[in-house]
Amino acid sequence: MEDTGIGIAPEVQRKIFQAFEQADSSMTRRYGGTGLGLTIAARLAGLMGGTIRVRSTPGRGSTFTFTVRFERGTDRPAAPTPAPEEEAAPQRRLRILLAEDHEVNQVLARRLLERRGHEVTVVDDGRKALDALRGGGFDLALLDVQMPELDGLSVVARLREEERGTGRRLPVLALTAFSMKGDRERCLAAGMDGYLSKPIRAAELYAAVDRLATPPAPSPPAADSLLDPATIRAACGGDQELLDEITGVFRKKAPALLAAVRDAVARRDPAALARAAHACRGVVATFSGAAAATARALEQLGRSGSLEGADAACAELAEQFARLDRELLGLRADDLG
User: Rounded CA gap, 124 and 104, in Å?
Assistant: First the structure.
């Protein structure tokens, strides 16, 4: 490739192949760009066993050349060779939402995913991403952390809030150009299921997508679980759809039930505590005898008119509700024996 532009000074010609670097920082302010294009080009050339070089004279323009390695063809039919790991067929075709505002990354990620047989929908800002996700129909989402309108962390936080109580959870992979300490933890805490740094690398993208597309095998409740498998099994009769519905109702109502108990304890109102704890006990008894016993103890305190020990019992109930919320997520009827 050859141009007749402003050229590149010799002392910065090596720097332009580094991520987020440009020969003149004023170009970013005037024309945009992140300084990733040449980095991606250099890495693609390297993956094909080649290199990329530049010859440039300030004020006269630049010439970029690259080399790649190809095997010489022969008249004899070549023996079949296994496809590279990153070209292996995916376990299943996925409908993927890609939310990314830079065109180079859009093209790269979309083409790589389509080469694996996936169906990719591309949007360029966070608000469009949230609207698309609300419409449903996706198996996986890739969200850029830095996007206009709404950033990726805000998108996934709103998505997780809307999923609450539905029994559904869409796998979401964070895409970020920043690889600083704590970024991975920040993404996971916001509700992401994985983390992929840019520039995008084919093998890493495929591995992350395959991992999220293959959920871990279900496991029975742990020995220290608050769940009562026999009671839950008797309630739903092994019907997964019914199990999803009743767990969804509990996870949706639990915050308000717990808030009513806390409010009654804070106001030192025995009658209100008895009513709120009774409501908690009725809802939670289907899932956990231990949590139902705590709610019953609070109910008895309210009926007695003495709130001594109510603060500790309320804290214990809150902890139990939080544990149940986690343990009920993704619970399978087959896990209940």
Answer: 12
pLDDT digits (tens, 9 = 90+) for 221-278: 556 788 998 899 888 888 888 888 888 888 888 899 999 999 999 999 999 999 999 9
Strand order in the sheet with 61-67: 2-3, 61-67, 51-57
Does domain 85-213 sit in CATH 3.40.50.2300? yes
Whole-model pTM? Answer: 0.43
The DSSP bridge pattern shows strands 172-176 and 140-144 to be parallel
Pairing, β 172-176 against β 119-123: unpaired
CATH class of 2-67: alpha beta
Q: Which residue ranges make up each domain of the chain?
A: 2-67, 85-213, 229-336
The confidence score (pLDDT) of residue 28 equals 44
Interatomic CA distance for residues 107 and 117, integer angstroms: 15
Same fold for the domain at 85-213 and the one at 229-336?
A: no
